[in-house]
From TrEMBL:
Gene3D superfamilies: Riboflavin kinase-like, Vaccinia Virus protein VP39
Gene Ontology process terms (BP): FMN biosynthetic process; riboflavin biosynthetic process
This protein's UniProt keywords: ATP-binding, Flavoprotein, FMN, Nucleotide-binding, Transferase
Pathways per UniProt: Cofactor biosynthesis; FMN biosynthesis; FMN from riboflavin (ATP route): step 1/1
Name of the protein this chain belongs to: riboflavin kinase
Organismal lineage: Eukaryota, Viridiplantae, Chlorophyta, core chlorophytes, Trebouxiophyceae
Enzyme Commission identifier(s): 2.7.1.26
Keyword Transferase recorded: yes
Amino acid sequence: MFACTAPAPILVPIRSHAGGCSAGSPGSVPRVRPLRRDLRAGCREIPVHSRSLSVQASASEARTHAERQASFFSSRVQDLRDGITPEIDARLHTIAGSVPGLGPASRVLDAGCGTGALIPHLQALGIQDILAVDTCPAMLAQVEARFGQGDSLGNVPCVRTWPGDVAELPLYQGPFSAVFFNAVFGNLYDQHAALLRATQLIQPGGYISISHPLGRAWLQEFRQREPEVVPHELPDEVALQRLIHTLPLACREYVDQPDMYRALLQVPLRYAFPGGPLRMSGPVISGFGRGSRQLGVPTANVPPEGFPDSLPKGVYFGWAQVDAVPDAPDTDRAVHKMVLNVGERPTFGDADPEVSVEAHIMHGFSEDFYGRSTKLVILGFMRPEISFGGLPELLSQIRRDIGIARVQLDDPELQAFSRDKLFTP
């Protein structure tokens, strides 16, 4: 247990490593255990709801929350610095070292960095390229005072800072080898939105670490006193599976001890998903016609019956082959890369509750192929279905999805599926 030495009201900003608290079990190292098999097996049956993917979310609410965070922590910078006891520092060392494979070539995002308490432990691993993100300017000023102001050249490894909500971090800041949410996850406005952005910023095979060096119970007690500062609890195993259900994430480790909370998530290598690869076939059917008419990205709609209900809606990729007419060019009958959208098209006002399966096949066909048989081998899951603010934003993301799919399908292991037994030679 931890005894807080700060007077009431509590001045210990749990977001950044427990200023003013002392440890009761110094240096203890929690036992790491993998996620329970029964939870892994059932995770696809648990629905998830996120404010970031619904009309309940608003940019103004998010800004208000960020301003509240900045105001609360601006006057507590020294409390944070003073609160890093040797015991807590040892736990931060454990947290930094919990992500496999980090070293001099790694790029790391420290989300909700506070005063930068985790950064020395990342640097001890040889990591030089670190982006520290926080909503509080006073915290970032402390990071810059401790570690210097980052070089303006993006290819020079150093510690850089970025002010704002990590859910709004521009995608060009990536890719990262790992993202750390240390002593901040309960403070986020939208945990699902933050994880979604992290998955978009991480390279396949990279990790997300969610941690708190004082543990889940400590944070829950603090949340009762400061519910506006800490709107969320740290998720238990079941809640964590709900949270990542629609995301391209797998839970690799889970630690929940009185003096340590840590969950290690991974974007699977090559975006592999449970049960994959998935094979589907069926005739091309008519859809809304938006792919070509409004977006300039032609798609082939196929019957959704072959897509398992247990898999999340969203964007997948793989290989496709159309049974073209006999006199079509050989290239029309070849196997091509494709991006697959499975969902309800939430960006459009006439979103249909019926699920559609739309494949963008990366080939310029010589003629329409409605009614022709199409075969799909689905290999990777990139992201969930998202409601965008308009067509330009949607089109930008579609182009990004296509680019990611092209690169992934160049991998020799995934290229081999272009010769899958489903396809006609």
